[in-house]
Amino acid sequence: MNYLISFLIGGLLCIPAQILLDKTKLTNARILTLYVVVGVILGGIGVYKPIADFASTGATIPLTGFGYTLSKGVKEAVESEGFIGIIKGGLIATSTGISFTLFVALLTSLFCKSHTK
Amino acid sequence: MTNKQYQEYATKRSETSPCIINCIKAFITGGLICMIGEAFKQLYLYLNIDSDTSLLFASLSIILLTAISTGLGFFDKIARFGKGGALVPISGFANAITSEAIESKSEGLITGVATKMFTIAGPVIIYGITASIIYGLFYYIFIM
Fold first, then answer.
1. Quick one: three-class SS letters along B85-124?
2. How confident is the model at residue A4, as a pLDDT?
3. ipTM of predicted assembly, 2 dp
4. Which domain holds residue B49?
5. Chain A, nearest residue to B105 by Cα
């Protein structure tokens, strides 16, 4: 059941991006940015939490989940540390993902050659 | 119907159907990637890791898998098939960074790899943080 929900929600979240790719000239970077910002907004107004609780990986693995984590981090940091949390919270909550991605990308680039040519 | 009108009609029709097929492909690809993530999460839960950390580890596992398959040139094939479906999950983010890093290797490790890594990661992180700070301000002023 968990797998099915994850599949359905994760899949559904990909469809708007595909429509944007086909119908507009938005580049990948813009769509990713859009998804993260939308995730922050949805997380901020409290819409994304029920989705994330319901769909688990189906909602946290898409990039809206990254935005949701940012907003969640800020919210928790503001609650526990006050004003400084506004600045601190976002990156602290997402630090694992960002650091790991950058580290792994660097490692991979050391060991692999370009496949485009 | 004039020739020109017909041509417009024809191009319109031929544009719609690829979009629907692409959407189905994106749905399947994105769904499968999330499902693999779910499998990882269940594995970590099984290993007695608490549920928040398992979720995080699941994302990290997808990032690692994406980086490896990008390095081996395999992820390109998934991306060509799934397009939006490969882009939206964290795999799109990881793939964008990794492929930029690999392709700019010839320009050196500092000014090539390290700089180019941020061509896609940069906007995502910067606007994500900006949005979260704005949200934090609102939350601090109006709710706290």
1. HHHCEHHHHHHHHHHHHHHCHHHCHHHHHHHHCHHHHHHH
2. 93
3. 0.91
4. 3-103
5. A109
Q: Does B131 contact A58 at a Cβ distance shorter than 8 Å?
A: no
> Which of A39, A76, A41 has the alpha carbon at shortest distance from A60?
A39
Contact list in B for residue A84 (CB cut-off 8 A) is none
Best residue of B34, B41, B55, B144 to probe chain A, by most A CBs closer than 10 Å? B34
Provide the whole-model pTM: 0.88
Contact: B127, A37; criterion CB under 8 Å:
yes
Pick from A37, A75, A101 the residue to mutate for testing the B interface (most B CBs within 10 Å): A101
pLDDT band with cut points at 50, 70 and 90 for residue B18: confident
Residues found in chain A = 117
Question: Does residue B118 fall inside a structural domain?
Answer: no
